[in-house]
Amino acid sequence: MTLPLFRDDSYLTSTQAVVTAVNDRGGIVLDQTVFYPTGGGQPGDSGKLILSDGTEIPIVTAVKGDTPDEVVHVPAEGSAVPDIGAEVTAEINWETRHRYMRMHSCLHLLSAVLPYPVTGGQVSDGKGRLDFDLPEATLDKEEVTIELNRLIQGNHELSSDWITDEELDAKPDLVKTMSVQPPRGSGRIRLIKVSDIDLQPCGGTHVRNTSEIGEVRVRKIEKKGRQNRRVSLIFADEANG
Length: 241
Hints:
6-stranded antiparallel β-barrel; 2 domains; 4 helices; 17% helix; Elongation Factor Tu (Ef-tu), domain 3; alpha+beta; 4-stranded antiparallel sheet; Threonyl-tRNA Synthetase, Chain A, domain 2
């Protein structure tokens, strides 16, 4: 088991940890980590592990292990592998992580602006998208952009809470995604709340306030299949660049 420190504090950039396992592919497991593993449409963090002698092991991504509670840190090809029991400092690439956080939080706002069932989604560096079950509707890029930025500029706080599997079963409307269900089995599920605007299960990392997201643009709206409409976003400064 890896203690996921990012779940309670998305702004934690480093931690001391102990190597508990190295799998047959060279993936490194720690007793605790700040690295978010790929999942829920959000990429895994990159960064480095620093050994006690100062040796640095570059980590290209983090993924989920054989159990839901295990995080595997994937080193760059050809990197040294630490011994089990070694003490390390785990440090993420904060600039990239924060951009993921900003876009992930923005996609939650987008799902509030467009209150339709979500069929897919993806966070990437500076960009993001959601797919909606919208067989007939015509969406206007400018209207969605204006409403999205209005919410962003409203300085709305984000917070997290936990509910049980049974509580979620009693409130199925909280789950917006049609194809991906929240992970169950641990007895509790994490909720992300954006003021009084949005509330949904999510295990990803998020900003504390919508003002951190910055201005965004709807890059394009595409028809993907008979019922899907894909809405793609980009940070405004990159759209203008």
